[in-house]
Design a protein that fits this description.
It is built from no helices and seven strands. The protein is an all-beta fold. The radius of gyration is 14 Å and the shape is globular.
C-alpha cells in the first residue's frame, strides 16, 4: 500500500502499454482506504502536470463521510482511448486539508468496457 497521500502528493507508475485500449472505453478502478478527508485524486498520463505535457485522464472524488475501509472507486478515462504505446500514469492528491492523508492507496485496475 501507498500511505500518507497528503495534499500535493504525487504517485507515479511507469510504464503501461496502451496499444490495446485505442478507440475503446476504458475505466480505472482504484482500491483504497479513505481517511475521512474531502479531496480529489487527479489521474494524469506522461507527466503529473499539464503545463509540462501531461494529459488529464480523469478524476476521483473522496468525501469525508466515506467509510474508513477498503473501497473501490471507479472513474471513466475517455482520453485514454487516444493513447498508443507506453505511458506513465500519475495520481495527484489534492485537498483543502493540509498535512493529513486522504487515503491509503491499495491497488488499481484498468478495465476495457
Amino acid at each position: 500500500p501507498v500511505v500518507n497521500n497528503t495534499d500535493g502528493s504525487i504517485v507515479g507508475y511507469k510504464y503501461f502499454n496502451f496499444d490495446s485500449t485505442q478507440g475503446k472505453d476504458v475505466s480505472l478502478s482504484l482500491h483504497l482506504i479513505p481517511e475521512g478527508i474531502d479531496g480529489t485524486i487527479t489521474i494524469m498520463a506522461d507527466r503529473p502536470w499539464a503545463s509540462q505535457g501531461g494529459k488529464l485522464l480523469g478524476t476521483i472524488e473522496l468525501k469525508a463521510d466515506m467509510p474508513k475501509q477498503s473501497t473501490e472507486l471507479t472513474a471513466p478515462l475517455p482520453a485514454l482511448s487516444e493513447l498508443v504505446g507506453k505511458h506513465a500514469v500519475y495520481f495527484i492528491f489534492s485537498s483543502e486539508t493540509k498535512e493529513q492523508s486522504l487515503c491509503t492507496l491499495e491497488d488499481f485496475v484498468f478495465t476495457i468496457q
